[in-house]
């Protein structure tokens, strides 16, 4: 039996009033508790499937120095 499809839509909870009052870097989302649970469950499901197919996990840096991304 094929595995069930992954749920790909997660509401990040950005409509919560507190989400607007927390300032962070541009392009970074604040993920509120209910959405964080959904994100972690989706991650666990995806990691489980990839591990069963022989993939290993790597963890990339969260932030990178600008000169690493600048050509030349």
What is the strand and helix layout of this fold?
Elements: H1 17-21, H2 33-52, H3 66-69
Describe the structure.
- There is one protein chain.
- By secondary structure, the protein is mainly α.
- 40% of the residues lie in helices and 0% in strands.
- It is built from 3 helices and no strands.
- It has helices spanning 17-21, 33-52, 66-69.
- The longest helix is centred in the middle third of the chain and has 20 residues, at 33-52.
- The chain is flat, with a radius of gyration of 17 Å.
- The mean pLDDT is 78.
Mean pLDDT across all residues, rounded?
A: 78
- End-to-end Cα distance, whole Å, is 51 Å
Strand/helix succession: HHH
**Structural class based on helices, strands and sheet pairing:** mainly alpha
Number of helices: 3
Global outline: flat
Oligomer: single chain
**Biggest pleated sheet:** none
State the total count of DSSP E strands. 0
Roughly how many Å is the radius of gyration?
Answer: 17 Å
Strand content: under 5%
Helicity range of the residues?
A: 40-55%
| Sequence stretches where pLDDT stays below 50 over 5 or more residues | none
Short description:
With 72 residues, the chain is mainly alpha-helical. It has helices at 17-21, 33-52, 66-69.
